[in-house]
Structure formats: structure tokens, C-alpha cells
Amino acid sequence: MSVPAIELRNVSLSFESKRVLTSVSFVLGAGETLFLLGVTGSGKSVLLKLMLGLLKPDGGQVLIEGQDLVPLSEASLAPLRRRMGIVFQEGALFDSLSVFDNVAYRLREEHLGDEAAIEQRVREVLRFVEMEAAIEKMPSELSGGMRRRVAIARTIVSSPSIMLYDSPTGGLDPVTSLTINVLIAKLRDLQHVTSVLVTQRMQDAYELANYVFSAEKQTLVPLPQGRPATSRPPTRFLMLRDGEVYFHGSEQEFTHSPDPYLRKFLA
After folding, report:
1. By Cβ atoms counted within 10 A, which residue in 41, 55, 143, 182 is the most buried?
2. How far apart are CA 45 and CA 54, in angstroms?
3. Tens-place pLDDT, residues 206-231
4. Could you tell me if 7 and 248 are in contact, meaning their C-beta atoms sit under 8 angstroms apart?
5. Which of helix, strand or coil describes residue 189?
């Protein structure tokens, strides 16, 4: 069997006297998608930081492609982090750098090619997110949705196999949110990227769970009626409550659960 892309084993974490996570465990296979759900403060964003090795748990293991991050030094973490990308809600672009320089930043920092190769790769990923026309603009000249697309381009420029999204459509209008969801699905369905998404927007989760990217139409199209897409790995939902895994399963199990807390969350 192939090694899971991400696996957490009994992960617990406290900040001073406050317990944030308690015995969190799950497995995510290569190419699969996981939606992290829960009310504010339930530990969703903390989980993303643990997966990146930005935080160390008090107990348990955090395995990325079979390697436990917990005992690794910062230097040893670097190769694993190159295989991961994260997109924050705010985009987190460098305001003093152009779109081109923002996207090229990681390639230059890690000396991944000469300037001609870097420009070629930057244009390629900007074209992928439909932002090549803005290559010379500054972040201040971009709308919120455009900044988010550039942030995705900057993240995928080094071809990560795992993408982490922290509320990628937060604060965006419905039309712009759809544009971001199309990009997430495009990465998932064309490049088979493993995806973990923190979201408060159930409509985004349902959309990505039930639609696939169409290369012909360049947008999302519904899954075949009555059956899952055989060409796509599973999508799972994981809900945290008070720092513990309250639910972990498929969308159908989630939406049809009689559990009162889940029903209240879905209402």
C-alpha cells in the first residue's frame, strides 16, 4: 500500500494551561481532499501549522509522506516543506514586490534556476491562475480575489504535492469565491494535489466535494449523477469540537448524520 500523504497519530497540544488539541488522529491518502470544519477556536488553523512543522505537539506524531516531523530540526524540515504549500486567507503577499517578484521569490531564494527559467515558470503558474496579464502590477493594484489567485500561484510555483488552505475564500464575494474554488479543483483534478482546507463556508465544501474541474469548459461541472467520480480520490470531512475529532467521514455521512450538534452546524 502507498504511504499516506498526511497522517496524525494521537496529536495533543496545549498553550500554557489551555488544551488546544486532544488525541487528534486521521489519515489522508495521496490526492485526497480533507475539509477541516468547526467553530472558531476549535483548533483548525493550529492543525495546519502542525502539518507544516511550524508547531510541535506535546504528544503524538505528525507524518508527512511517511516521515514524522516532530523530532526533526528546522534544517531537516526544509525538504519536506518544499513539498507543501499553504495559502492564507489574507494572501500574505509582499506589498513592496510586484506580482512577478512575489511569485519568483521562492525560486530565487532556493536558487531553483536562472532568471530565464524562473521567468518561464512564473509565467506558467500565473497563466494557470489566469493572472499573467497582471505580472507587472503591485499587490495594492489588485482586488482581494486577484491577490488570492497570486498567492496560489506563489504557492504552487515549486510544484508542491500537498496544499494547505486556511479559509481561502474568506471575505470574498460569491463570484470571486467560485473562481478560487475552480483553482483549487483544477490543482486537485489536473495535478492530483493532496488538499487540506480549513473553511467556515459549507457551500464551498459541498461545491468542491460534488463538482470536478472540466479542462474543456475551464470551470466546475457536476459529478456523474448518483455515483462518485471514479477518476478522483475521496473527499472527507473532519469536524473538530473542543480540540477533539468529533466527526470524520464522507460528505454523505456528514450531511445525513442525525447527531444534534452536526445538524445545528449544518443549519
Report:
1. 182
2. 11
3. 999 999 999 999 999 998 765 554 55
4. no
5. helix
Q: List the 67-68 sheet strands across, edge first.
A: 18-28, 6-15, 59-64, 67-68
Residues 58, 14 contacting (CB under 8 angstroms): yes
Q: List the grid coordinates of 71.
A: 523530532
> How distant, in Å, are the alpha carbons of 4, 23, 38, 69, 87 from that of 57?
20, 10, 20, 10, 22
Q: What is the pLDDT of residues 56-72, one digit of tens each?
A: 999 999 999 999 999 99
Please report, as a single letter, which amino acid is at residue 184.
I
- In degrees, rounded to 5, the angle at the alpha carbon of residue 169 between the alpha carbons of residues 55 and 230 is 90
Rounded to 5°, the CA angle 17-239-149 comes to 100
Residue with cell 472558531: 40
* Parallel, antiparallel or unpaired: strands 6-15 and 18-28: antiparallel
